[in-house]
Amino acid sequence: MTNKRTGHVLLGINALVLGYLPAAWKTPLLKKDAFVDPDYWANLGKTAERGTLDAIFLADGPLLGDPAYDANPIRLEPTVNWGHVAAATSRVGLVATASSTFNDPFELAERFLSFDHQTGGRAAWNVVTTRGVSAARNFGMPDIPQRDDRYERASEFVDVVLTLWESAVTSQDVHHRGEFFHIDGRLRVPPSKQGRPILFQAGGSRQGRALAGRVAEGVFAAELTKHQAIDHYRLVKDLARSNGRSPDEVKILPGLLLSLGSTEEEARRRSDEMHDAGPPSYSIGWLSQAIGFDASKLDLDEPFPEEVLGPLGDSQTFLGSIGFRESIIAQIRKTNPTVREYLKQTRYTGSGHAGFVGTPEQLADHIEDWFHSGAIDGFNLQPDRLIDGLDVIVDELVPILRKRGLYRYQYETETLREHFQAASPTPS
Questions:
Q1: Domain containing 247: what range?
Q2: Which tens digits make up the pLDDT trace of 291-330?
């Protein structure tokens, strides 16, 4: 462990509807309509707030998922759903993902600032460029734009939204003429208690990191090892500095897939049982999507061939996450497992996001180590099953972090921006 840091970790929950594993819905703890049950969502918010967590994330769903590996095929629109959760809570931040490829910047700016105003300054927009032909066709497009085109649009889109949010403060009209958008006007929505929503970015590509360094205040990262995480942390902080920003203006929160138990054996048993209860094609499905190769064609008892591990033939048309792919390939090269061994290993070590299987005490050790090593500002935790996994985080993990001086005992701030500013670690 390296130099100690002051401040505290940021903790978010990635609310993947019922949990990140497909079999999460099978528990008798859930009602059959939990996907869309208002009480289910309100209780998630209340539980997160009971643990003084910083934020809850919810992704958009602009396309139907493949039931072979999509854990949660039914999704409510995030900002509408979080509006309901906001009424049941008062402090926890509410992060909604929305695509810069399939939205209009004026409408999105108005919707998110309205959401931020009505929640008392607790909103954040997680910017994604979206991938997938099915998503494009839902919006009347024959195919998804190439990666560079999506990020060029995203960069201008974000600039337009930020300018529109500023118009709510200045009451000055916006006159924008760009490659993708022409806008004359300003928002009628007043600024929120935190001024405007927090801006998150979730892409791990070169273009995504550049966007994060230029404007993002939070990065939902994908890191499988501490070494990779430290490198990415320094890269994004340096990019912020090169854009005339303080490195502390952008917070890095990798995702972390969780299976927790009172003992490590119990946690592994829970993970195994939930994986075994899911569709047999789940692991092969996510791996195929993540690496851009049909993994069903691979020999399970042979190592991954070089043609799979090598550079992408065309990054512009690759429909997966480049950040996920880089992390997975690095993990495979490190141990050179057979395909079967790797699929078994990912039950405990994660996929594109890192995984953790163990006790709350061990998880606290992991968080403390990565925090003091300069790899993270916090984690976006992703329980295997939310209905009982979130309670373990709130009732068992958080008290341990508090005793170690890594987390607050109660909310000391009101807006999400204030939560972020209060968690500003510096070397001591």
A1: 10-266+351-422
A2: 888 888 899 899 999 888 888 776 666 666 777 788 788 8
